[in-house]
Amino acid sequence: MNAIAIEIAEKRYRAPAGEAGREIFRGFRLDIGAGEFVALLGESGIGKTTLLNIVAGLDRDYRGTVRFGAAAPRVGYAFQNPRLLPWRTVLQNVALPLPPGAEGQRRARAMLEEVGLGELADAYPERLSLGQQRRVALARAFAIEPDVLLMDEPFVSLDEAGAARLRDLLRRLLAGRPATVLFVTHDRREAVELASRIVVLEGTPVRIVRDLPLALTPAERANAACIDEVRAALGAAAPG
Ligand SMILES: Nc1ncnc2c1ncn2[C@@H]1O[C@H](COP(=O)(O)OP(=O)(O)OP(=O)(O)O)[C@@H](O)[C@H]1O
Fold this sequence. Notes:
Elements: E1 2-13, E2 22-33, E3 37-42, H1 48-56, E4 63-68, E5 75-78, H2 90-95, H3 102-114, H4 130-143, E6 148-152, H5 160-176, E7 180-184, H6 188-194, E8 197-202, E9 207-213, H7 218-221, H8 224-234
Helix pairs in contact: 3-4, 4-5
The structure holds adenosine-5'-triphosphate.
Residues 13, 24, 42, 44-50 line the site of adenosine-5'-triphosphate.
Protein name: NitT/TauT family transport system ATP-binding protein
InterPro entries: AAA+_ATPase, ABC_transporter-like_ATP-bd, ABC_transporter-like_CS, ABC_transporter_ATP-bind, P-loop_NTPase
Keywords: ATP-binding, Nucleotide-binding, Transport
């Protein structure tokens, strides 16, 4: 069964008066199975964030439909920028999507412990490194126990070791709470390490130029030769 069925007949951004608008999607379709981890690759500015915003229901200015397999799916969204509220503590930021009250606080605290930031619960985001802020954003996205998790380059701008630690954390969190994931990245290696399917987008309007299932063992995902092989299979079309 599909967890998400996306059909975008048309999505365009309006332009200032007198200029032609830009058509991002026309006749676009993507079906995602329950439990899949789909990495979306594509050039900068092609429409990846637009696609996530449409799936999240944040952008309703398009013709088409997004259908979910579950009746009322819980959708978590980790943005490119961690988007923490600076006037709220780390704990309050994680508790934000949860129902108010003691149970929400308990769950938020447990999530913070799980991402290794229990000691920073009462700190404000400005005190945190970018890697720590991204951990908080992950904790917030997982706090609602999402059925669908949307992630927009969540580990960009970190050094390689920091990004690798967060990839490990994401894998651990997903092992405990499986979700269907739509993950935007510009990094093919990151896609190979994490995804069960890689979808490469190209052009204006956007079309799918590669759709590659990946049934790899953890050892194969970490193997340089194997990563090179998948990169080659993705061809020149994919960035990163
Ligand atoms: N609110 C908006 N109004 C007008 N144009 C927009 C708006 N948001 C995005 N665009 C344009 O639509 C195109 C797609 O943007 P989008 O952010 O979806 O791309 P992206 O693939 O996520 O890019 P990146 O990889 O750089 O994050 C871009 O050309 C962008 O300038």
